[in-house]
Predict the structure.
Amino acid sequence: MTACAGALAALSICATATGATTVAVASGPIASAPDSERIAAQLRDAAMAGHDLAYDWVSELTTRFGPRPAGSDSEQHAAEWAAARLKSLGFENVHIESFPLSAWVRGTGNAQLTAPTAQSLTVAALGGSPPTPAGGLEGEVVIFPMLADLQAAPPGSLAGRIAMVAQRMVRTDDGAGYGAVVSARAEGPDVAAQRGAIAFVMRSAGTDNHRLAHAGTTRYVNGRVAIPAFALSNPDADQIERLAALGSVIRMRLFSSAAYIPGAHSQNVIADLRGGDRSDQVVLIGGHLDSWDLGTGAIDDGTGTAIVVAAAKLIRDLPRRPRRTVRVVLFGSEEVAQPVPPSGAFGGHSYADNHRAELASHVLAGESDLGSDRIYAVALPARVSDSEFARAVLRVLTPIGVLPAPRSREEAGTDIEPSVEAGVPAFVLFQDATHYFDIHHTADDTLDKVDRAQLDQNVAAWAALVWLAADSAVDFRASAAPAPQS
Amino acid sequence: MTACAGALAALSICATATGATTVAVASGPIASAPDSERIAAQLRDAAMAGHDLAYDWVSELTTRFGPRPAGSDSEQHAAEWAAARLKSLGFENVHIESFPLSAWVRGTGNAQLTAPTAQSLTVAALGGSPPTPAGGLEGEVVIFPMLADLQAAPPGSLAGRIAMVAQRMVRTDDGAGYGAVVSARAEGPDVAAQRGAIAFVMRSAGTDNHRLAHAGTTRYVNGRVAIPAFALSNPDADQIERLAALGSVIRMRLFSSAAYIPGAHSQNVIADLRGGDRSDQVVLIGGHLDSWDLGTGAIDDGTGTAIVVAAAKLIRDLPRRPRRTVRVVLFGSEEVAQPVPPSGAFGGHSYADNHRAELASHVLAGESDLGSDRIYAVALPARVSDSEFARAVLRVLTPIGVLPAPRSREEAGTDIEPSVEAGVPAFVLFQDATHYFDIHHTADDTLDKVDRAQLDQNVAAWAALVWLAADSAVDFRASAAPAPQS
């Protein structure tokens, strides 16, 4: 380690790290700020000035390995590459923790309208879907506006038919529209099968209008997905609805050679920046290395891994360590459900299981998994939401456009959720998701969708906040704190 | 025919068509305008107020028939539907003129990188491409920045290899970027084959960054396309260039089951609005009914056919006929080249051949085939470019954003080109093509890409200009006119 290496050298932080030098930053002089806050501001400004590591990371990850489906060789090779890179960046305790997995592979698939006219459709089998018969299957399509309408259909009413849920995802800046449609993806196949349907199709859970279907996992019920299940691209769903409005009976042919590989494995990559006088206390930050198979997982979640690695590396290059340990975890197998519980976040469950004894000393956790568009709000654990720590965070982050979150707590990230459920406090850096669900889980999730300036802003916010938390002695655990306001 | 039916009734044109009533329009009172110009302004305003026919036409065409490749049943069914619709709209002399065709069908196709890592690629075989061997073909990829670089490669230097041209299309408002890259599509396979290549791939001739390849025809040389030829989606081309920049040898596997159907046929649909005292003189307006097979041909060229039909229908609903005949031609087989000359515009050649004797009395022709974004300029035949007729056209069209074209003449449309070459004068209504080549020839060419307000503006400009030309006695033929300035 060269104490003055890296982007921070240019800010003269090496010479003044323990002094009281006034440093002008975007938000004006903060000469009176404590040393820790001044360093946080410098981390922020170094990242905002442009920091190649994050972009280079996601570029190399997505280019070398392409799609990284859970349990694939590609996911494993990406994990090996990531571990080697983390070692070369100077992190400690770098290792890979493998876990068994039942992998799902898409194989090939296609769909056509067979009535009223023959037209090709763009579809993607939902993760976990069983294959169709080798010759495909065909049936009349019954369109339901919402999952609730499908649920209201009587048993047997869909015998021999294909159930379609046509609900559109609403575009919002916080991604709330996703939650409103993803239940159809999770529950639709089971609900349709109970009513006799031979297959389930849905309008994609996505906000774009491209001929690219949005993949995504469905739910196993009693260890299986009952019937073949597909997402249609949104223009294809439009076309089917227009044909139905013309009074046509719609018939569809579906084919999928999806398969299960029960003996696969995935892995988490772990790397530490060991802390100073409180090195047994861990601030955990992560993203996931696996991706859906259609794109190359640039925004889901190549950039998430890039943001946390680059933020940790900026802290690593400081002339002094933070008091607490910063741990980077690059999770495996976030995307695809498992036939047996726990059904999601397999990498996250593996981490929580493997590190159960340590979780009591995990003081804070955060995950970056909503693309790389700008961060606009921060939510801290309820205990500190009105504290000097929170005020320091806002003093550092508000100049780059980060406000207090309107809500104090929500799901902090699929992979860290098992740790959070075990009591680890979490923060959320809310990203602008206005455009995220145009690309999410499609073949379009490729490097060109990454905006470097917004990526830099993410790194800036993560580096500053993680530094402040790791360099503090603040207790984030709720204990006697008042319940969060909803 | 009900004299006061349709959108124009609301403008009281029925009561005043032969009078001198002052009618307020968007551009202010034009009480002093001659009757013909006043009617043109009313046609314009009726269209701008919103006219359902154009949108309904392209909606029904693309929904009922989906993709309409040249020579397909779908193209034929669309032509039959269009002829029936034109009859029901009150047009005369409605008929279908068939012509023989060698059709090309895509079949199935796919591509993968096999080195340095296995990754799926999004490709589309170029129109006219022969199939690969049944087991596909594989080879090392040699990347050339431009067609000229491929042309500079020595004979034999690509033996057993796959040639790739990586040139990017430049986005411009007039579509000029397309011309700069389409030569690679036309000539690339032949140039590559001459140097020993086993296949040709190119970055798509398109300006988007979606995982959708842009189809398009390549050129037959001596009646054949020498080697299998494909377009890569633009993000895939980026990925290959990045892998090459990492120092990797790139290998690719390509498969296509493309086939030729020599005994096919296509057809033009013709419909007249017979003129008054000069009904032997024809103003020809058209678009093409065929489309590429990947999308549903909404903007290429469903909207072109919709614009000319809706414009003619507005004129048809006037209380008096124009002096000259307005002829709508919906051409077949614009998209795909033929193995024997004439290699392009097969519908356009068939029309010019079938109507050779009439072409001398075709006074003017125009084609709408660049999507449905707004018209921003008009070019008239050189003889009238500085005339009272041109000034009247601009008085009517400038209020809806149409300026004189910076150049007096360029290719007026693939389908009308054979007629233009036989001496028929042409006009061009220039459309904003800034976004057209994001979608052109891809699976994304679907109805949702049509902007109704801009479609209405197209109908407005076409209706007004076609009316003015058809209701005039102006001689548009160049004869003694000065040569156009370049």
About this structure: The interface with chain A takes residues 59-60, 62-67, 74, 77, 113, 116-120, 122, 209-212, 234-235, 238-239, 242-243, 246, 294-296, 442-444, 446-449 of chain B (CB under 8 Å).
